[in-house]
Amino acid sequence: MLTGLAGPAQADDSAHPGAPVAVEITDTTVTLSWTPPTAPGEILHYQVVKNGGTNIGTTTGTTFTVTGLIPNRVYSFAAVAVPRTGHPASSVHTRVRTTGTTPPMPAKPVVMGVFTEKGSHERGFHVKDLVTGGSAAKLTHLTYGYGTVDGGRCGIGDEHAALERSFTAGNSVSGQADTASQPLRGYLNQLRALKNRQPQLKLLWSFGGPGQNVDWTAARQNPAAFAASCARLLDDPRWAGLFDGIDLAVEFERCQSACPPGGPTTITPLVRELRSAVGGGRLLTVTIGRWGPAKQSYTESDLPRAAAHVDWYNVKTFDYYHPLDDMWVPKLAPHAPLNSSWDIWEWGRDVHSDMWNLTEKGIHPNKLIAGIPTHAWGWKNVTRDPWSGWLRSTEPADGAFGPGLDDYRTVKPRCAPTGELGKTAVAHCGSEYWTYDTPATVTGKVAYLKENGMGGAFLSNLRGDTAGGELLTALTSALAP
């Protein structure tokens, strides 16, 4: 008989079932068996829970087979007896590791970059720069952001920037200046020229994201109408055929006390209808981000159910710590740590925790694309605590794009890395402290992604990389077989 890993000892309580025993373990399934409570009383059924409380099924017997697991992962299971009268009573949790090996990274991993219409033109960054800097040839996918979700419908974020902005011969992908008489100008025309040069590059239009009208509540009230509006926009005759799919950029809400049914942000109805509207031949992805320490935003969500309808999730594995955080942080910390340690403020706010929690929920690692930040967060008037040695500050640095926020390309030359924390670079220069990724830390993170069978990686915003694409070059080199 196969057994799970040892769990904690159970108190002598006759109302509780015995601890589950794993009688059969495969790569993706675990068959559990337990003894019923010894206390008298009728048991209506048992609930089987996974990883601390996720209800995965019910049975009237004392055996249950859990399916849809990931090879070589540790799970915990418990049986909860639901009586006709009285309160449910849980067994202790039994830890079980599935057999097999971790799924390998896909042979052709996703290498994606984000191009945003907001601020790019004003900062002198154009679609053409992706060609001249060599980035377009290295990418497998490019996401254009961000469209709106207003009144439950998809819409264009900035119509002037997307459709009407004129480009000169010098900053146009084609080398031809736009004219007032042409039917389409703006970023969509530039993206069409890019696609003509790089036909292998897959383009996605992202809706939602930061700084836009985002009304997911209205979209969930009529998912079919929402999906139809997105599909119509994708197939508009003025740019039909340009985009290969749609991305939804969802910021998961923080649960204040207990998450509502379906999690803090329910997306399954939206992606189910979107998949039907855009068809199986086009891509459908979801970019997910959580607020700082609110880990339950992912673990109590409906992301596992929604995964059946999406090609992958882009996980924003950055911004875990920053100077605008409304949580009191007694010491400065890197904003995209790969893992936590004693010298980083809080356990669980890191890349590893997010990716591991999502796979433990049943999402295949190949469907998880990790985010690599091209932006930096910084503090100023930094002091060192004489007792602990920790660096402290309550003020954001003067960033070019907002308090404490700047690009890798501009911060690194003036505040070079002085070390690493959690495999993310930190730079303490004078009275300032900045944190960002570098080619070296990108290489280290990709090694982790390969080891754990993730689907690839994406850069948070291509304009933050250097003109020659240092971070993207490091990413593609590390992802190479």
Structure, explained:
By secondary structure, the chain is an alpha/beta fold. The protein folds into 3 domains: 77 residues, Sandwich (Immunoglobulin-like); 186 residues, TIM Barrel, CATH 3.20.20.80; 165 residues, Chitinase A, domain 3. It is 22% helix and 27% strand. It is built from 13 helices and 25 strands. The strands form 5 sheets. Strands 9-10-12-13-14-15-16-25 form an 8-stranded parallel barrel, surrounded by 4 helices. α6 packs across α7 and α12 packs parallel to α13. The protein starts with 20 loop residues before the first strand and ends with a helix. The N terminus is likely disordered.
Q: Span from first to last CA?
A: 40 Å
Spatial strand sequence of the major β-sheet:
9-10-12-13-14-15-16-25
Going by helix content, strand content and strand pairing, the class is alpha/beta
What helical percentage do the residues reach?
Answer: 10-25%
What's the shape? globular
What's the total helix number?
13
CATH first level of the largest domain: Alpha Beta
Low-pLDDT runs = 1-12, 255-263
Question: What's the CATH architecture name of the largest domain?
Answer: Alpha-Beta Barrel
Overall average residue pLDDT: 88
**CATH homologous superfamily of the largest domain?**
Glycosidases
Radius of gyration: 25 Å
Enter the CATH topology name of the largest domain.
TIM Barrel
Number of strands: 25
Overall number of structural domains: 3
* Main β-sheet description: 8 strands, parallel, barrel
